[in-house]
């Protein structure tokens, strides 16, 4: 996929300046790039990291871009603006007159990009040795199957599982028959069930990060960002009933904690 694109749009960074904290990951490289401004060099390093060569590049996926000027882009901007208002319950609601499929599509792409980035910050800690199986605490273990190419679930390490998962999600998002980006092209009849499967699987990455890698998240000062991203995700799936309650069980306590204040 288009590796010449910056995986992070500039607008996204301006909206979420806290993400600049990610540069903590590459301090030595950062300092070698005197003369370039911070944002530019950060993006260059990100690009290097995502375009092959480094060990982490397998798990980093290029950002899925929503083209500027499109209606979906307007929706994304709307979502970001209402998020800024601080009322997450309101922010996740379907904006008046909008199509539910399109709203779910735009937000699903955004969650994929956020999770990709959050997991990207801790890939160095999620290895074959640290995580020989994909788990979310001692009670939950996941085996990978996508239902089409891999029918019989494979038991594999967390980094492999998450690579399968993110690659699979990316393939769905890039499929124009599932996620049409052109005006007037309708969403398929099964769109909502595809979106539900995507969100169900993306949830597992949050669950793995919270259960197995919360310490580095704190050290990288990404904790507030992770909480906000996850809370937004949960409010969104609750609003439209997109993930079964039992799928959310690995983080049930956290979900109750994060959402109780807003009830
Ligand atoms: C993130 O959420 C956890 C669980 O609710 C909480 O213990 C922690 O204080 C939160 N951190 C921040 C920075 O909001
Ligand atoms: Zn791990």
In brief:
Keywords: Metal-binding, Signal, Zinc. The chain has 263 residues and is mainly alpha-helical. The chain has 11 helices and 2 strands.
Q: Which distinct ligands sit in these coordinates?
A: 2-acetamido-2-deoxy-beta-D-glucopyranose, zinc ion
Helix and strand composition category: mainly alpha
Widest sheet: strand ordering: 1-2
Determine Rg (CA atoms, Å): 18 Å
How would you spell out the order of helices and strands?
Answer: HHHHHHEEHHHHH
Give the amount of beta strand, in percent: under 5%
In terms of quaternary structure, the protein is single chain
Task: Work out the number of β strands.
Answer: 2
Report the principal-axis shape.
Answer: globular
Number of DSSP helices? Answer: 11
| Terminal-residue CA separation | 42 Å
Q: Provide mean pLDDT, rounded.
A: 79
Keywords: Metal-binding, Signal, Zinc
Pfam families: Mob1_phocein
GO cellular component, one term: nucleus
GO molecular function: kinase binding; protein serine/threonine kinase activator activity
């Amino acid at each position: 996929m288009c590796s010449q694109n910056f995986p992070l749009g500039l607008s996204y960074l301006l909206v979420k300046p806290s993400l600049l904290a990610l540069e903590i990951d590459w301090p030595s490289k950062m300092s070698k790039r005197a003369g370039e401004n911070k944002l530019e060099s950060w993006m260059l390093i990100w690009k290097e990291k995502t375009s092959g060569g480094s060990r982490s590049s397998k798990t980093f996926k290029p950002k899925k871009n929503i083209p500027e000027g499109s209606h979906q882009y307007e929706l994304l901007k709307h979502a970001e603006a209402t998020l800024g208002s601080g009322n997450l319950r309101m922010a996740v609601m379907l904006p008046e007159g909008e199509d539910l499929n399109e709203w779910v599509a735009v937000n699903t792409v955004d969650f994929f990009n956020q999770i990709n980035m959050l997991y990207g910050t801790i890939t160095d800690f999620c290895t074959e040795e640290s995580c020989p199986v994909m788990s979310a605490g001692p009670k939950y273990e996941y085996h990978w199957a996508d239902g089409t190419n891999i029918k019989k679930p494979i038991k594999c390490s967390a980094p492999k599982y998450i690579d399968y998962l993110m690659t699979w999600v990316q393939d769905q998002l890039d499929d124009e028959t599932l996620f049409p980006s052109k005006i007037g092209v309708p969403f398929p009849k099964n769109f909502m069930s595809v979106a539900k499967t995507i969100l169900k699987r993306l949830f597992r990455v949050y669950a793995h990060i919270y259960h197995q890698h919360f310490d580095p998240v704190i050290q990288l000062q990404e904790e507030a960002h992770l909480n906000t991203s996850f809370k937004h995700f949960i409010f969104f799936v609750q609003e439209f009933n997109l993930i079964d309650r039992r799928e959310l069980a690995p983080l049930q306590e956290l979900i109750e904690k994060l959402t109780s204040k807003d009830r």
